[in-house]
């Protein structure tokens, strides 16, 4: 059976105490971390490895194109600010989940259950929205994580095509079909802890690959086109969606903290989250700035597609990234499987008396792989996929909901500074969601218009 990383049960997992009303504030003596019973908990290093692997994927390779949309100076400043914003919101989310567990006197709550608890504890006018809120969070989580998987399929296929086209040209959709069976097989691995060694290997390959990419960016022939330092308001929403997609591993963060042997180490000033995010933001700034200086306005959806064609070292790094992202697919598909299985499918099967739970569970995993494959084949636009899912899902999951949860869990105390801060965060999230989603959708529609399709084909032919 899989690790008990997340649960949407509201009943206590300890016999010592009974659940209390969300309105009561007598839970100071209850520490959810001390009551967690995990089959295969991860240590601090394993958790950091997973966090890095989730954030060092296609997002960092799309940073040069993001900088092309924002301008060099704006990109550097905005990436640092976005990193601070995202890290703070992740801290808020983890603290809110912990506070919700204390109120219910339970060791573990999933993101949706914690959000429902926050609404139940908030102003009376919002308490009736607790269940719809939990379902909404589930929908965003599933859509976001499956969106990542779609992005990964397109990325792997695009990069394999760049290598193989030197010998035999095939449509990118054929490459997607070729990798489908291995993806399904890898996604059948049932335990997050079993994925940890693969994740560690993928991290090494990613870091080595990034080093080689930086080498090409520093030593290769750079574009002579003048740099855009400030960008434009028209394309900035696409940058915002890309940076959110790249930095915010919100679905995995909750799961990782819930599955830690020492969860208090996750949110310390020098803990797992701050350490990982600092390293990640610095890498993103470096790769984004260097990649943009190298390509300027001709940056591809992934910087690997701009490496010299036919160069043995470039080919090696492309293959390394394809393998690393392949491994990451299994980790990211873990979250929607958990959400759909524990929250919806398993309760329905138990109520119906089904005795084929294992068949259904593996059937769910296979079905999600097939779904992401079909979506990737339908819209094989890597960069726009990244911007769309970043703006749509992560503005809500990574900014809006954590801000609401923190405020509602403080009700009726409502500290004014905290309330003001959360209102500002919520506004930032809503603006990013609406502007980023609209811009990405318009760009996707335009990319399928005849002139854009011809330009897209010419670009691949040039590569």
How would you characterize this protein structure?
There is one protein chain. The protein is an all-alpha fold. It has one domain (32-462): Amino acid/polyamine transporter I (Up-down Bundle). It has helices at residues 44-55, 58-61, 63-70, 72-104, 111-121, 130-164, 172-187, 192-219, 236-247, 250-258, 272-295, 312-352, 357-378, 382-410, 416-447, 450-462. Helix 1 (44-55) packs across helix 8, helix 7 runs antiparallel to helix 13 (357-378) and helix 14 packs antiparallel against helix 15 (416-447). The protein is globular.
Task: Quickly describe the structure.
By secondary structure, the protein is mostly helical. It has a single domain (32-462), classed as Up-down Bundle (Amino acid/polyamine transporter I).
User: How would a textbook summarize the main sheet?
Assistant: none
CATH class identity: Mainly Alpha
Order of helices and strands: HHHHHHHHHHHHHHHH
Gyration radius (Cα, Å) is 22 Å
Helix content: over 70%
Instruction: Tell me what the CATH architecture is.
Output: Up-down Bundle
The coarse overall form would be: globular
Report strand %.
under 5%
Number of helical segments? 16
CATH topology-level name: Amino acid/polyamine transporter I
**Poorly predicted ranges:** 1-25, 458-463
Distance between the termini: 45 Å
Question: CATH homologous superfamily, by name?
Answer: Amino acid/polyamine transporter I
């Amino acid at each position: 059976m899989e690790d008990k990383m997340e649960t949407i049960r509201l009943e206590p997992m300890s016999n010592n105490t009974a659940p209390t009303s969300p309105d009561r504030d007598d839970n100071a003596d209850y520490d959810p971390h001390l009551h967690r019973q995990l089959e295969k908990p991860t240590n601090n290093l394993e958790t950091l490895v997973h966090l890095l692997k989730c954030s060092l994927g296609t997002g960092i390779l799309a940073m040069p194109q993001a900088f092309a949309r924002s301008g060099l100076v704006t990109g550097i400043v905005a990436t640092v600010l976005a990193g601070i914003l995202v890290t703070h919101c992740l801290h808020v989310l983890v603290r809110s989940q912990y506070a919700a567990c204390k109120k219910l006197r339970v060791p573990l709550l999933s993101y949706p259950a914690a959000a429902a608890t926050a609404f139940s504890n908030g102003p009376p006018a919002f308490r009736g929205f607790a269940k719809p809120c939990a379902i909404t969070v589930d929908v965003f989580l599933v859509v976001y994580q499956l969106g990542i998987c779609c992005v990964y399929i397109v990325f792997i296929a695009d990069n394999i095509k760049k290598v193989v086209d030197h010998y035999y040209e095939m449509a990118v959709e054929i490459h997607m079909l070729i990798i489908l069976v291995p993806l399904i097989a890898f996604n059948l691995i049932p335990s997050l802890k079993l994925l940890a060694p693969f994740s560690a290997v993928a991290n090494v390959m990613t870091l080595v690959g990034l080093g080689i990419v930086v080498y090409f960016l520093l030593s290769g022939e750079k574009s002579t086109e003048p740099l855009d330092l400030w960008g434009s308001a028209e394309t900035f929403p696409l940058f915002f969606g890309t940076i959110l997609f790249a930095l915010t591993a919100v679905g995995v963060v909750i799961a990782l903290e819930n599955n830690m042997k020492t969860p208090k180490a996750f949110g310390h000033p020098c803990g797992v989250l701050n350490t990982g995010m600092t390293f990640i933001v610095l890498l993103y700034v470096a790769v984004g700035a260097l990649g943009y200086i190298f390509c300027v306005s001709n940056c591809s959806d992934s910087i690997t597609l701009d490496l010299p064609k036919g160069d043995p070292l470039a080919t090696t790094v492309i293959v390394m990234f394809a393998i690393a992202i392949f491994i990451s697919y299994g980790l990211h598909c873990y979250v929607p499987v958990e959400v759909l299985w524990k929250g919806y499918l398993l309760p329905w099967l138990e109520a119906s008396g089904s005795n084929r739970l294992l068949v259904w569970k593996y059937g769910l995993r296979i079905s999600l792989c097939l779904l992401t494959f079909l979506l990737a084949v339908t819209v094989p636009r890597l960069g726009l996929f990244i911007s769309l899912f970043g703006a749509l899902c992560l503005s809500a999951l990574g900014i809006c909901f954590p801000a609401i949860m923190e405020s509602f869990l403080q009700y009726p105390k409502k500290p004014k500074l905290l309330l003001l801060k959360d209102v500002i965060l919520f506004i930032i999230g809503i603006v990013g969601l609406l502007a980023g989603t609209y811009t990405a959708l318009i760009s996707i529609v335009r990319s399928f218009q005849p002139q854009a399709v011809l330009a897209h084909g010419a670009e691949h032919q040039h590569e």
